Amino acid sequence: MFAEIIVDITNEALDRAFTYHVPDGLGVKLGDRVEVPFGISGRTKTGYVIGLRESVSFPMEKIKDISGKVENAISVQGDLIRLAAFMSREYGTTMNQCLRTVLPVKRTVRKNSRRIDPLLSYRQDTDEKHALNDEQEAAVQAVSVAFQAGKSVPFLLFGITGSGKTEVYLHIMEEVVAAGKQAILLIPEISLTYQTVRRVYTRFQGKVAIMNSRMTAGERYEAFEKCRKGEVSVMVGPRSAVFAPFERLGLIIMDEEHERAYKSETAPRYETRDVAFIRAHLAKCPILYGSATPSLTMYQSALKGRIKLLRLSKRAKEGAALPETEIIDLRDELRKGNRSVFSDRLKQLMTEALSEKRQIMLFLNRRGYSNFLSCRSCGESVRCPHCDVSLTLHQDGMLRCHYCGYEEPVMKVCPHCGSKYLAPFGFGTEKLERYVKGLFPDARVLRMDADTTRDKGAYEKILRAFAGREADILIGTQMIVKGHDFPDVTVVGLVLADLSLQSPDFAASERTFQLITQAAGRAGRDRIKGHVVIQTYQPEHYAITLSMKQDYISFYEKEMTYRRLLRYPPVEKLLTVQFQSMDEDTLSQVTEYVAEHLRGEAPDVSIIGPVQASVYRVKDVYRKIIYVKHDSHDIIIQLRERMSALSREIDPRGLVLLNFDIQ
Ligand code: ADP
Ligand code: ZN
Ligand code: ZN
Asked: Alpha-carbon distance 208 to 203, whole Å?
């Protein structure tokens, strides 16, 4: 047996791993700390085992023996290597790539690029520490018991919006830090839950390291170094914060557990939920998942008893109640002759709120000005030359592709038939902003979407302005629905709730339910009654009617019936394999070959496809998908390996790339 060993554990050192022979009877595992003779002098150094194999291709006499194992070496490095090994197996990515994900890149921060922390300039909260209510107390107690016992118990904190989940997190973290241990708080995207960060920052003063996805590699490295050296006790950040190298990790919290941002978009395409679970297991510490709208997977685990359920059933703040929610059937508005984007009811509520000096949030899940530009003569829409989608019209007169970023100025004549009759169809946040300003000329309006938040610090600026009452109305895409606590918001309008229902994905209803529930949760967080208006063309859809009642349990049952029927996750495992190639013919050949052989070899397994991806071509790359469903995780992993092998068989030059995803 031979072992790959790195002596200096950094991302860069991976390229300088050394091979050693494992003496018989030593029995080393991945992540073990070992002593090895190093360099010409043969001086002993300690290193970590990052790979094991049966044979080597170079002469045996050049290979030295491992001198010995460092016994009882509990170190975070070892845990992180074991975590990488889990990820490599689970997500079908090389060990090297996983280690690169887990270990920070060594970079220095340029002195002059260091910025003043924007958090420090944020409006001071009046947030004092609260005495917990009974439900909060019970939740803190349960986690505390596991923490004191040094047990890796998983918990799900299922609490409605505004029920005081964050307060629970803060209390447990305080206990952990007071006991000399360290805590990781995962949040979907730092800027999106700015207020949470602010609260942690205030409570833990200098003991917090914060990460966000816009940081440079140097800034991330610096944050990780603070954790490794024990200079901080709390790490707050998005999914990669789960790799914070704390030596005395005592707690992991994953807020808004259901959020899609927790899934890595690049290989290894890890599910933070699972990686965090393993990390907590290795560190023998509790893990607390929190959500107002748990993912079906998580709630199912709770019902099966694999994870302990903790409930918060009422709003925490005295006098704050859930808002009054109304569904508006947009077909009725049309029948009444109302062709505007606002129903009469929403318009009325907005007028009232403005006259009472309250704030309003309007949510529309589509950015840009108009959805697309279409020709009235030939009926064609103007499309991206590199992707199979229509270009979106923006207010600055540009047409943009939301998939690849391609842009061109609006043309005068139809590129298909030369007719002059090009007209914009549909509407996005930019046009909504124009409508709002037309209807309420005195109102101060802010817009938050991918277009207004491109610059570093732009989110913070908009949120700060809205929190500071510099605007009356905040318009935005889904980035405005999460986690924010604006006490003066009394009206929340979901301008076109149907948009997320139309996505071609088995989880579309689940996401719509989450989106509406979370958006509605923004209203009436203080003592004044809140109103939520859901505008839709499908008022009878269960995702809409049940989110209106904030009835998660009924939604869970209904949605699970449908998943059972179609054998979708979490009932069965779903393996999605996306094949990508610039060459359409090769892509078809390879996918047909793989699907056909797999069907022959595994006749009992449900294999669907190949089918074209919902957007078949993106950036001139064609995409086809094969789906595999099975209830055994192990079999899914085997089939994944088999598909890789089959693809290599017919495509030895690797013209087609495979991308795996297991749900
Ligand atoms: P969630 O994270 O569930 O949305 P938060 O923790 O943000 O809820 O709490 C919502 C609001 O209620 C916040 O303004 C918070 O300060 C307040 N709050 C939380 N716990 C209590 C409590 N026990 N008593 C009074 N107010 C509380
Ligand atoms: Zn035309
Ligand atoms: Zn494009």
From this structure: 9
